[in-house]
Each structure stands twice: as structure tokens, then as C-alpha cells.
Amino acid sequence: MALKGDLHRSPIAHRYFWERVRDAVNDFTGSSPSRFAILVFTFLILVFTLLFSLPIATNSGERAELADAFFTAVSVICVTGLATVDMASHWSLVGHIFVYIGVQIGAVGVLTLASILGLVISRRLGLRAKLIAASDSNPLRAHHGPVSESQAVRLGEVGNLLVTVALSLVVIEAGVAALLFPRMLIDGIPLWDAIWNSFYYSAMAFTNTGFTPNAEGLARFENDYWFLSILMIGVFLGAVGFPVIYALQKQLLKPRLWSLHVKLTVVTTVLLLFMGALAFIILEYNNPKTFGTLNASDTIFQSLFLSMMTRSGGFATIDIPDLNGSSLLVADMLMFIGGGSASTGGGIKVTTLAVLFLSAVAEAKGNPDMEAFGRRIPGDVSRVAVSVVLWGATIVAVSTVTLLHITKASLDYVLFDVISAFGTVGLSTGLTGDLPESGKYVLGLTMLLGRVGTVTLAAAVAASQTSKLFRRPEERPIVG
Amino acid sequence: MALKGDLHRSPIAHRYFWERVRDAVNDFTGSSPSRFAILVFTFLILVFTLLFSLPIATNSGERAELADAFFTAVSVICVTGLATVDMASHWSLVGHIFVYIGVQIGAVGVLTLASILGLVISRRLGLRAKLIAASDSNPLRAHHGPVSESQAVRLGEVGNLLVTVALSLVVIEAGVAALLFPRMLIDGIPLWDAIWNSFYYSAMAFTNTGFTPNAEGLARFENDYWFLSILMIGVFLGAVGFPVIYALQKQLLKPRLWSLHVKLTVVTTVLLLFMGALAFIILEYNNPKTFGTLNASDTIFQSLFLSMMTRSGGFATIDIPDLNGSSLLVADMLMFIGGGSASTGGGIKVTTLAVLFLSAVAEAKGNPDMEAFGRRIPGDVSRVAVSVVLWGATIVAVSTVTLLHITKASLDYVLFDVISAFGTVGLSTGLTGDLPESGKYVLGLTMLLGRVGTVTLAAAVAASQTSKLFRRPEERPIVG
Ligand SMILES: [K+]
Ligand SMILES: [K+]
């Protein structure tokens, strides 16, 4: 008894205690990184639900309804950009600052978590993967030197990653804001408004959120191609993913040195951008409500902008319900695919689609292996991709059926807003603003599962690889 | 010269000629069974387009419009059951006989082709698969004895299969008709009408077509649970697939002896039947237009019937547009999945879904292999499944976007009719009947690609397996 009492007061005992806390955290992040990610996001959403429930957060000075505070918190932390209230008029300046801070935390959170999960996967995949992970071109390594033998991700590494991610975010957002700022001054916006708006727009672009600080939204800038182009660059950098940014920053002009992941992400993103734009041009060029009144070059630019925003940016220069039903469905598909891995973009991720496609190509050619850019992709990667797509399709299906039943609205609109939530895109047909309370919770949950689910699922299934001592006899069912 | 001339006239020369024709046919069916399947279906559709273009085929005695003749021919040969005209009033008795004969040819055709393709796959997969193929439980073998070493499917085997399939079809349809006939007499239908109607309904059930011979359709029998139950059995037998029928007929009461394919098909089909029915009960029990006026047991029965018909049967006791949007989407998913492999049912097939699901389960558990019922499923099967789903999703997406653009109709209805066409189901929201000419060709093509595509794609990709002499260096992209 006396001994224990002494220990509790001694510095050594304190060190023991903190070491045990640290070990417990390490064990938890290392042994169940997916659960850790879900906990972090849920905690952040609770905090921001509380913040948005404060009377000072609203313009009216009255407490926001719980469903709206919750929905806004999820939308901000998951960097979605959907809203059940009119963002510009409902929230006070304090509320808008919460939004601004929230999307930054959400963006740093998702980039860091995705990168940690990437690290965990690399560790678990054993020596071969470790050698790859040790190469200089892997951005998931926070510092150089031999890779640790331990399988757990230590707190120090998490800290390093957090700092690297946060620094990148600050640098890129400052750069985008610096490009937006003079344009706003030229457009005659007052100095302080221009500063606040350029930082706000910059954050909303790089974090792929898509909220606008001003009441009239992007309509003010819809013909300002300089402004819109900078937004597109911000959205592209956010959506392409941290590993790709890291590689581009080091080897922008040496694409031969890019890793397979970087090549796949860039090629698929660019292909989707142009194919999406082409589809929108064909389907909307004679729609009087959208591009029907524009000339050819304006139609091309606005189609490219719309295509890029479905990557998960969520800014819009047109009213979404004005689009033809066919364009809505094309947008649905683009939003479902989403951005790059370990990015602020959502969806199943462009590499997931690319791997599925490569898998089908390998089958069609009769190759036993998937191949791309002179590299062989292991077969288990395609199984992870299948899991992610099944997960995504299931969430979208269940959420769509539920919201169809709650709202009795048309499938065109329900599917669009559900996929926009799942892919954390933030474009809306207007359905989200008209949801009853139960619908707000359903769509909020869809965002959370879309955001955390795809990131952690891939890690969880890839990390759980075990080898088996025996194999069962083989038998081949007929498919198709 | 003289020698050649002699040969041309001699019996030996004739034998040479016929042997060369036979070899050419063998080469073609063996080397490119998918192209063969597409040619057969295209040929049948051309013939039936001509038949439906004959003035004697219509009630009015006037030549049907080409788009309608083509659409009806595709719908009949692909055993879909969609119609751009009012089937009961538009076609004469001759026209209806063409329909009756057409669905039989279509059903025998698809069952035989799918089985031939199964044979080709088995041959190509080498000795291990051959040993499996040699086992008594494999229905794809037309007769017993050691498996031929040749990789091509010989004409004789095709003939044997054709006979086996046609015999099964005649026996099952006669059985179903014999069960329907007394019921029709009891219902007060005149003798000759009862005979014709019972054979017609029986054929439409087993071939999973879903046309009705009488003007008022199934409405006459909507409360006749004996009649509807027999239809369900007919549809189930057709949709479950020829390999399963073969196994059930031999080992109905010894499920332990069933092959993996049979077990997977039966379990998935039954699960989908009950899960679909449960969803329809939940979503429709209080819909006054559908099941709202029914008592509990009627609601359960009608939900089971609707769920079974989305398997690809296509009969309906309710008006599809009366369903809630949520139920339409559930039906979309069930129709997309469709029936069993080598069946008259359509869609991506239940085993394809099962394999994708097992692949995700294996990933989640960290197993390197997919397992089911104590058997290991080779990894390339899941890649074939991915190819089939990608193919199906692409057809449905392109067709839906095109028809949305042509008709400007609501996505609820367009997606339903497109998936109904792709899955050769034949249920309709009414959109098909209102299509403009271009839309009829788009939907007709959707049916053909859905019918031939999934069957041949799986065979084509599975048959093209080659081994490689070198493997490229491995690299792992991040997915999800
Ligand atoms: K967004
Ligand atoms: K059908």
C-alpha cells in the first residue's frame, strides 16, 4: 500500500502513466485504425453540432434546430457542402467562422487519416511493401531513413503527418487565395470583404467543400473565367489527393518517375474530366435553361467546370434542377466515382474505378495479371476495389430507397442528392433544403458513411490479410 | 486439271466438301463461341422481324411498322415480354402463334448457347476442370464416358445438348400447362381457350417471357393463388437455370450432393426472393394503390409474387406505375441481378452477385481465397464477375442516359424500363408503350445486349485465359 502510494507521487510513476496512455493510443490506432477514424470523425461532428447549436452562431440569435446543427456539422466536417438551411442568411459571422475552421479540420483530418491508414496497410503487407514504402517517392513516409519494424503507427509519426498535411494545406490555400484576391479587388469588392472572401473561397475550393460566403453565391463570378479557373485548380489539387500532390510537387516535370498510383490517378482524373465535359456539352448545348444561350467556347468552359465540380468540388454556376435528366445521371456517375485516394474528394475514388477497369481488361485479354504503365497490380487490390464499390452501392441504394420513401420525391432528384452526399460533393437539386427532419438525419448519415466508409473500408480489408494453413478444394461456379 | 475435275464429281469429293463445311462450323463455334451466339440471335431476330412484318400477323391486316416488328421480334427472341404495341389487340392469332413459337426458340437458344459456352470454358480450363466436367453431376455433359481431349465443341455435342434442352422444356411446360388447365376449366373458361391459354401461360412462365394471351392479362387471375403459384413455379424453374434443373431433377432430396454452383444459385435465389418480398411489404403495405387494401396474408403473397417476377418472369398483378418510387428502385436492383446462369432469366445472374459478395467477405475476413460451402472459388471467377457487372452497368447507364435524353421522362420510369429490358424482365411503367421510334431501337438493342452480352461475355473472358512467360514488377495503387 505504502509503496503504491509513493509510486503515485513519484516522477517515475507519472512517466509510467503517460507511457501507458501513449501505448494505449498507439495500440488503438495501430490495431484498429478504422475504428479510430470513425471515432475521430464522430467526435468532431459532435463538437461542431454543439458549436452550431450556440445562439451566437445564427443570424437570428436563436438556437438552430438540432437536425440543422447536426446536418451542418456533418456537412462541414465531411467537407460536403450540402445545406438544409440557407447558409448565407442563417448563420452569423461566428457561424461562418465555425464553418471555415470546420472544413479545415475536416480536410486535415481526412488527409491525415487516409495517410495513416495507407501507412498501416504498408506495414501489414510485409517486407516487400516495406521496401516500396521506404522509397523516396512515397509521400506517406513523414521522414527518411529505414522503415520501422514495428507494425503500429506511433504517435510521433501521426504528429509528423499532421504537420506535413496542415502545412501543405496552408501553403496551397494561401497560394489560391493570393490568386483570387487581386481579381476580387479588380471586380470592385471592398478590401476586407475581398480578403475574407478570397481565403474563404480558397478554403472551400481546396477542401472540396463548395460553400460560398456571399448570398448570391458563384452567380456573381459565373462569367469570370479567371476566377473560375483558379477555383478549378484549387478543387483539382484537393481532389487529386495528398500522395499525388506530394509527387507532383517533387517531380512535376518528370512523369516517368511518378509512382503507379500517381499515374493512374492523374490519367483517370483527366480522362473523367474531359469525358464528363463532352457528355455535358452533348446533352446540354441546346438546353435553353443551361448552356443553350451560350456560344461554343462558353459552353465548353462551363461543361469543363461542371465536370470538374462533380469530382467533389460542389461549386455550381448553373441551377442543378435546370439540367436535363440525362445530365443529372451523368453527374451521378461522376460524383459516385469522386476524387483521388487520400484526398478531400469523396466517392469510391478514381483509382478504384481504374483498378476495376484494368481487371476487366485483363480478363478480356486473358492476362492472369492486371497491368498498367509497365507494372503488375496484385490481384487482392481488385478485391479491395470490389469491396469499396459494393459498400458504396449499398449505402447509396439503402439511402435512396429510404429517402424516396420519406419524401415521395422523384428518383432523379433523390438519387442526385444522395450521391452528392455519399461523394461529399455538395451539389443539390434542392431536395436537401426541403427535407423533413428524419430525412436530414438519413442524408447526414449518408455523408458520414461516404466520407469515413470508403477511406477506412479499404484500409480495414487490406490490413486484415492473413495467410491460411490449409486451402479448401477448389470449385468453380458459373457466373454471367 | 482432269484429276481435280474427277474429284469434284466423285463421292469422296463430296465427303471432303461436307467435312470442310463441318470443320468450318466447328472451328467457328469452337474458336469464337461468343460471335457464334451473337450471330444466332441476330439471325433469329431478323427472321422474326420479317414474320411480324407480314400483314397476316396483325389484327388489322396491315403491315406492322418496322420499329414495332423489330421490337416485338427482339422481345420475343430475348424472352423479355416488353411491348411497344398492345399485344392482345395488335397481333392476329397467327401473330400470337409466332410469339409462342418465338419464345420457345429463344428459350431453347439461350439455354443451349449458355450450356455450349459453359462446355467451351470447361475445355479451355484444362485438365483440372475437365475432371470436374467429367463428374456425373455436371449437366453440361450431354452423355457419359471419358471427356474428349479436343478443345472444340463438335456439332454432334451441340445437337445432343439441343435435344436435351428441348426435351426438358417440353416436359416442364407440359407439366405446368397440365396444372393450369383444370383450374381454367373450373374458372369457366371454354375448353379450347383453356387449352391454348394454359399452354401459352405455361410457355410464358417457363421461358420467363411474361406475355399474356388474354386482353385483360393477369388481372383475371389476380386473386387465384393456385394459378399464380403455378406461374411462380414455372418462372422459378426457368429462371434458376438449366444446370440447376438438371441437378434438382437427379438429386432433389440430397442437397449435400449438389455442386457449388447449384447451392450458390438456389441459396441466392431464395434469399433474394424473401428479401425482395420483405422490402415490398415494408414499402407498399400502406400504399392504397397497391397492397394498402389487402389483408396481411394477401400482402405477403402478392409481395412474394412481385419479388419472384422481378427475377425475370415479368408477370404483374398490379400496375407498375402505382408502386412507390422506393419500390421501383428495389425492383430495379432485383431485375438487374436477374436469374441463374444458363437460364431463361436475364440480368447479371445471381451467382455473379454471390461471387462479388463472397469476394468482399473474403477481403473483410482477410482470407486469401473466396470460400463457400466448404469449397474454394478461384480468384479469376471474381474477375469474370466484375467484368459482367461492369458490362451490365455500362449498358444500363448508356441506355438510360440516351432514353432520358430522347423522352425527357422521369428517371424513375426510364431506369425501370431500361433495367427491365436489360434483364429481359418485361415489367413496364408504361414508358415502353409511349416510346418514339428511335427509343424503340435503343431499348431493343438494350434487350439484345442484355440477353447475349452477359451470357457470352463471361464465356469470352473466361475462355481467353492465357499464361504469360514473364511477369512485370509489382506495384500497388491505393484504392478507396
Ligand atoms: K464538396
Ligand atoms: K421476361
From TrEMBL, chains A, B:
Location, primary (coarse class): membrane
GO MF terms held by the record: monoatomic cation transmembrane transporter activity
InterPro entries: Cat_transpt
Domain of life: Bacteria
Subcellular location as annotated: Cell membrane
Membrane topology per record: Multi-pass membrane protein
Record's protein name: TrkH family potassium uptake protein
